[in-house]
Structures
1.
Amino acid sequence: MMCSVDDERVRTELVAVITAVVDGVPRVLTADDGPRLPSGPLRSDHRSLQGGLRAWVEQQTGHRLGYVEQLYTFADPGRASAGGRRVISVSYLGLTRVGSSGPAWAGWYDFFPWEDRRPEPDLPDPVAQLGERLLQWTGRGDDDETARRRLRAEVTFGLHGRPWRPELALQRYELLYEAGLVPESPFGAADVRLAPGATMAHDHRRILATGVARLRAMIQYRPVVFELMPAEFTLGQLQDVVEALAGQHVHKQNFRRLVQQQDLVEETGHTHAGTGGRPAMLFRFRREVLDERQVGGTKLPVQRVR
Amino acid sequence: MMCSVDDERVRTELVAVITAVVDGVPRVLTADDGPRLPSGPLRSDHRSLQGGLRAWVEQQTGHRLGYVEQLYTFADPGRASAGGRRVISVSYLGLTRVGSSGPAWAGWYDFFPWEDRRPEPDLPDPVAQLGERLLQWTGRGDDDETARRRLRAEVTFGLHGRPWRPELALQRYELLYEAGLVPESPFGAADVRLAPGATMAHDHRRILATGVARLRAMIQYRPVVFELMPAEFTLGQLQDVVEALAGQHVHKQNFRRLVQQQDLVEETGHTHAGTGGRPAMLFRFRREVLDERQVGGTKLPVQRVR
DNA sequence: TCAAAAGTGTTATCCTTACACCCATGT
DNA sequence: ACATGGGTGTAAGGATAACACTTTTGA
């Protein structure tokens, strides 16, 4: 029997962006070498793509994934494996809770320092520096292409008085890639200072950026934050998690009012003390809203920056 | 040389949901046998998934795809091909314009009659009938599972005074599937009357439903409708296209105001006469907004139904 | 002259955003 | 006493949804 390696046969792997918030830091599950995102081949005993990923992550981490959704499928030629055979990566976003961090949980912002806009006083603003280098790359000319590039840089990075929009994380990464400001990029020049931040193996940093952007967009209109919370929590803790994900502060009073008047939570009757202030009421997520609302209608107010 | 058919090798195909609006009807490009959605294998000369699909559709239809985005990747075991080899389908949503309809362009609502809610006077409402059969399926009980099912049916189909939400098209199809009310479903009983509408080969009707739902959701916050319009158009024509996609009427005055005050369009100076009324001003899409806005901020007002 | 489609103006209501202030606990 | 985080009330501005009405053409 002859072997015919036809074009249609490719290697398929599942890549997981598993996120949890530990110690006020959004973290992603990684494998040490690279580092890289956990990934594995699709196996025939997996009943579905999502099922395969679910079983596989639960086995590895011992934690149930509260929420899993497909992120994106990648198959660019740069991803071909050594033998020249094509690799298709089906990526998933998963949300979970973990007790302690451990080395396997890397912080989002180790890879994207510029994505955390919560002001740390006195530190130099990475966005200002990146913005300068980006505008240099776009060029000062007035032709169409140059103008479009400059506009893109201004919008995605919130330059020249435009608002910073957390959910544009992927566009920002892609712009840095095009400008040759990340080491993964083939367009880099020898003399430019690269953007700060750790890299990952293959194109995993891009996949992570996809997950970050998707999650940030999603928390604005879907009640998914709660998958990252313990069974009981205070509104302050909830706000901390949202701020960690958005990389940005939210307006306290409006946040509380919005969460409550949308009936997303209900009081448990318990309180949480010992934070050096007035004890807070504990709440629990009203899971029913997932059925009642079906996708939409859960806005969280982000504070305007600039 | 021996053949080792390892689990990791699968057949990968690209499936296209190509949509255009012709004669006020949203249509999808189909192949006659089945009918089914156009699909073809991923080839090694395709530089990327999207590139492969793009080249491939343009070659077939002679039309440039204005907008292409990945829809979803399917790989359930039911999709295994005859030899038991797994099939992975990467689906894409594409928007284009065509001059005339022709047999290859099937209407959306041939497959989903219940999704068009624009009142045709005197005709029986398919949703009312489906709703009745669905509620029968959910059961009258009071246990948790029954109650959840009933709530899902009410929300997705807008029963009992809840609003009809166009973008829930996929959830509606999936509910009908679970209830055994579509022929594709394995849960069907012999004695129930099925939902109206033509079927497609394989799971292509589900993929189409995914595309319909995605596009309906998207027109509410992204200026993609314009990919379906000619270079110059009247606001009335634009509204007609939106209504065709949403399967629902929109509020005329608010629609016009919203489109104009968001600076989505600019006057061309020409007018369009011969519709049996006052001639309308012609507009053109301001492509710049794609760069200026980057994704967000383009709401189109849908009229509340019920 | 009338129907049909285009286009303008105005109002009530809700949601978003922001500000100012009071409350209960630990040190 | 006072710092810290928890919690409430209320007002200004903008977006939304709905209303009624005028204008310009073709038949």
2.
Amino acid sequence: MKDVAKHADVSVSTVSYVLNNSGPVGASRRARVIEAVRALDYTPNESARNLKRRSASTIGLVVPDLANQFFALVTEGVERAAAERDVLVVLCAPEATERPISHHAKLLRSQRLDGVVYLSGIGTSPSLILELAQSGPVVLVDERISGFDLPAVVSDGRLGAREVASYVLGKGHKRLAIIGGPEALWTAEQRLAGYREAIAAAGLDREAVPELVGDYRMESGFSLAQQALSVPPKQRPTALLCANDLMAIGALEYCKSAGIRVPEDVSIAGFDDVPIASLLTPRLTTVSQPAREMGYQAATVLFEMLGEENNQPAHEPFPVTLQIRDSVAAPTSEK
Amino acid sequence: MKDVAKHADVSVSTVSYVLNNSGPVGASRRARVIEAVRALDYTPNESARNLKRRSASTIGLVVPDLANQFFALVTEGVERAAAERDVLVVLCAPEATERPISHHAKLLRSQRLDGVVYLSGIGTSPSLILELAQSGPVVLVDERISGFDLPAVVSDGRLGAREVASYVLGKGHKRLAIIGGPEALWTAEQRLAGYREAIAAAGLDREAVPELVGDYRMESGFSLAQQALSVPPKQRPTALLCANDLMAIGALEYCKSAGIRVPEDVSIAGFDDVPIASLLTPRLTTVSQPAREMGYQAATVLFEMLGEENNQPAHEPFPVTLQIRDSVAAPTSEK
DNA sequence: TTGTAAGCGTTATCAT
DNA sequence: ATGATAACGCTTACAA
């Protein structure tokens, strides 16, 4: 920068002024500066800027599992919002790196990160998240900590769950089983609540619907489906409501391996509408959430927090859409 | 930091010494310093460090499409290698952000990034990549620029392609079609070369095997499969060699939509072994690459470049593994 | 062994 | 409208 100043025969402050439009500069001098910048192929040193401005123009994105396409889509949304503001996004994959959340807290305090978008996904202990939130601005995606009201971007999972469940029930199923998500997770609770509402509305006895607790991973879908379906035929559920697509896929895999036909013998519904849901055989009936938009929104909320000291705008839950496909059919009226 | 020094009643340099083990410090003073650090909950300001050290402890990862699980896995590998060195990984998704590569070049020069791992995937013009490489250390993954010998981490795609093609030919297929990748891409060339070798080895006429050019995306797999199969039955290929899984999936989708049975009517083979390959019906025969390891290795190579000024170690191509599954069978000897 | 002080490249305050 | 100059928080000769 000194070089630029010299080359343009002005002072460094003038250079700074034109670079940031932060001060009045005479036309001729301004021209000389931009000319010098070009001539020397000058690029401002961002480290120095960051030091001065006490901000890194960088946010963190904590994502449990990139191979989960739902997360990948959210990530794209975050990326886009950040790019619009010339902010960098650093990936934090606790799963892959085996780092505790406290590490991210440290990143926040050390100014390497201005804020964090947190995709808990599979469930982190609330206290850890609170620790993180103490260290700097945090926005949760598709998650909420009961009791504390951290900024969060969510979709209307309860409604979505009610809708799929109603749809399934509308097909005439009388014996269902629910393969739910981890107990501590807000989304899991919401979806479970939605299922229950629909079941109650259909006049079914809630006691008659087993509620299994999974962990949102394929394997648990597999083993819980096995568990749910390993009962005498007359009690066997004719439909499985899975709280996310991964578990639904696991359930599907189990059925394949056990020779149980879907949807003829048992219907399966998922949640999330990951890109592969429609590529499976049968195509998975599920509920889609606007993943990219949610990521975009989350980042936007974060930037609002970073910008103004003020508001923490309440955002509506995002709408969800029932995706009716082949994995759900009417129960075959055997016996 | 000044506060810490005061609290411990030492000078700032002493604090710095203990924080970095960069100087000899007496036991008692050292103890006082770490005590003070704890007491004040001090976290070093990384921006200042970066300014001083002229490095950002941050690398960039350019990835065209996160929803592609192969890339997601590579990303996990990169993350892990970086985390081991306390280096941050910033995500650059040109697709999502619509930013030209020159932008990444600027990031390199402005010290926001120390280096870049580049996953071209779908193909970037070589000249742009070279521009990037001029601005700082770059490691390519699964890609190579012909003529220039940039550091790159690759797998033995040619071998893999030969193996899968041999396997298919071994099943007795006489009429094949190749759905290849973008012409400029090194991986696409390699795989094509491998296919050709196997075809020649089987004594088939190369002219008799149509080589279609796709773009590695599902849609092109769909439409090229349509094109390849829309010929009189006696000339119709009985097997499709797809240069990646996404196109294979597209081909599969086309067959489903057209009522063509796989593998009974036509066999399909892919490349990459993305996680969903084994979840499809039929399960996709494909070639797996150690994606996570490749990412890890790429980051490692980059760090070597950053560390020592010296070597640019030649790395062996990673091994590939043929995954035999259901989507390939012997041709039905109709007619 | 420990402290002093000179930068690192910017921005911003203040005279001019 | 412009230019010195003092921070920003840290590292590192160099001096003591």
